[in-house]
Amino acid sequence: xxxxxxxxxxxxxxxxxxxxxxxxxxxxxxxxxxxxxxxxxxxxxxxxxxxxxxxxxxxxxxxxxxxxxxxxxxxxxxxxxxxxxxxxxxxxxxxxxxxxxxxxxxxxxxxxxxxxxxxxxxxxxxxxxxxxxxxxxxxxxxxxxxxx
Length: 148
Hints:
This protein is mainly α and 148 residues long. 66% of the residues lie in helices and 8% in strands. The longest helix has 26 residues, at 10-35.
């Protein structure tokens, strides 16, 4: 018989609940992304460029919600699929700008409303006030951790 480790404090209990909730919601979201024929990092590139427009690789990397993967490989895959293109920056010869192709924009336009609707359904388990409260608490955690 396996004994459950005692909760040492509220922080650990909260962390475990947060991690379990995130993993469960992310698992459902990952299935939808897989149906599109994309990986999480590929989806994140398409989503970021679709929402924010063309940008340099460094900015893309910092704006992505999920970036678990080698960015060069992810971009190569998307470029080979003709969903993105790399263009030389007109203002900085060292920089490359990533943008969606017409096919990439079509994919984004087709997938994003469904994605947003799905996220809305998942988060709809919480009232708007609860979502605002959770958002504020998570921002507080992010701000604290970014100051370290």
